[in-house]
Design brief:
The protein is α/β, with parallel strands linked by helices and about 400 residues long. The protein has 18 helices and 6 strands. It has a 6-stranded mixed beta sheet with strand order 1-2-3-4-5-6, sandwiched between helices. It starts with a helix and ends with a helix.
Length: about 400
């Protein structure tokens, strides 16, 4: 019996050539073609798109209704990824793309057709981004789920299996469920230390929101141009062999309250590179990293808590792009900040269910439908959205960076 998850773990780091991409799909049960089935000329690309494309391979072809294509680009842009399905839908009903320009970073694209009227269809792109050297748990899980039995030849069933695997809602639901579990663990931990129900609830929510926001900030490469800055910070702390349970006080709070507020000064226990990175951190003046009454309490956070938090967040790919109606990523997007905040902010110990608290999250698709039907609702939603952390923080550009030398000289 095929161990799909083990195969995915082994093959993804090896995917440095067209042959290895073919090997991925062959190992997942697809009837792959000979790599010689290629040629971008056959697809009659427009001149501006042809300039971006180096080669096009046909990996698999099921009765010309479902086909898998490997598109090798000279350089990748959102526009070319958006345009590609236009050329292929003339020949195949259900195209699936693997797009890369360097055989390290990949974009898997599932094309979903949405019927609007008789004979009128819209094209929705569902994308999965993969860095073969730094693949996330959820990316590997999704790819393992597109595996099929070798005997399966029905193109519609194969496509439907892919569509189920590329479910953004499934990833979102899994993340949200894990977040709630983590939140309750944090509540229990702090309550055992502080014995204050209200503070425990509010501080647990604040700490998790601060850390989740860091994952969006680092995705923008605002922290030392490193999309895994937080993980590296945690690993540096453990490598330094600092006194136990000092990560929050001597490392994380320095990032929160000094680096993000233009108040950082170098620490002797931090490396030269880390001191420089924190000195150049963006100024985030939205209030999330401003010390408040919750932070005035004296408490200690065990390293085991952070091990648990980072293990959870590191499983997921975070995208800084919020969903468009016809273009989504299989990842955690900034809307999740609002979702977890709305779901937890008013929940007390006595009423820890969303329904009892009167809090419900409204998905963007529902908001769009409401806004199309009633302009007044649009402006109400717009005003509300401007008050969320996503609007106040994620979309704000940081102020110009100040060098360490400039900061020393005042």
């Amino acid at each position: 019996m095929r161990d799909t998850k083990k195969f995915i773990e082994e093959i993804i780091p090896q995917m440095d050539s067209p042959e290895k991409v073919y090997k991925l799909f062959h190992g997942l049960g697809y009837k792959t073609l000979d790599p010689s089935f290629r040629g971008k000329e056959a697809w009659e690309l427009r001149e501006k798109d042809k300039e971006s494309v180096r080669e096009i391979y046909t990996i698999a072809n099921y009765q010309k209704r479902f086909q898998i294509f490997l598109v090798e680009l000279k350089y990748s842009t959102p526009a070319i990824i958006r345009n590609l399905p236009l050329y292929f839908e003339r020949e195949t009903q259900y195209p699936f793309f693997v797009i890369t320009s360097d055989y390290q970073n990949y974009t898997f694209v599932l094309v979903e057709k949405i019927r609007e009227d008789v004979g009128v269809w819209k094209r929705k792109l569902i994308k999965l981004s993969l860095d073969r050297e730094n693949a996330y748990y959820t990316d590997k899980l999704v790819l393992s789920e597109i595996a099929i039995e070798d005997v399966l030849q029905d193109p519609i069933k194969i496509y439907n299996n892919l569509a189920q695997s590329f479910s953004v809602e499934k990833v979102t639901k899994e993340f949200f469920s894990g977040y709630i579990t983590l939140f309750k663990e944090l509540e229990n931990y702090f309550f055992n230390e502080i014995r204050d129900t209200n503070w425990t609830h509010d501080y647990s929510l604040q700490l998790l929101n601060r850390i989740m926001f860091l994952y969006f900030v680092q995705k923008k490469r605002w922290l030392d141009n490193n999309p895994r800055f937080i993980t590296d910070l945690w690993l540096s702390y453990k490598k330094e062999g600092m006194e136990n349970d000092s990560f929050y006080e001597k490392w994380l709070s320095v990032l929160f309250f000094e680096a993000f507020n233009n108040k950082f000064f170098p620490r002797p226990y931090l490396s030269r590179d880390l001191n420089a990175a924190l000195a150049l951190a963006p100024y985030l003046n939205g209030g999330l990293f401003t010390p408040n009454k919750l932070d005035e309490r004296r408490f200690e956070v065990s390293d085991t808590i952070f091990e648990r938090i980072f293990t959870f967040f590191d499983k997921y790919n975070f995208t800084i792009r919020e969903e468009l109606p016809l273009e989504v990523e299989v990842a955690v997007d900034p809307e999740m900040i609002g979702k977890v905040y709305e779901s937890l902010v008013n929940i007390s110990e006595e009423a820890d269910e969303r329904g009892e608290a009167g809090i419900f999250f409204t998905a963007r698709t529902e908001i769009e439908q409401e806004c199309q039907q009633d302009p007044e609702k649009y402006f109400q939603r717009l005003k509300a959205s401007q008050e969320t952390m996503v609007e106040r923080l994620v979309c704000r550009r940081p102020k110009p960076l100040v060098t360490l030398e400039q900061r020393k000289t005042g």
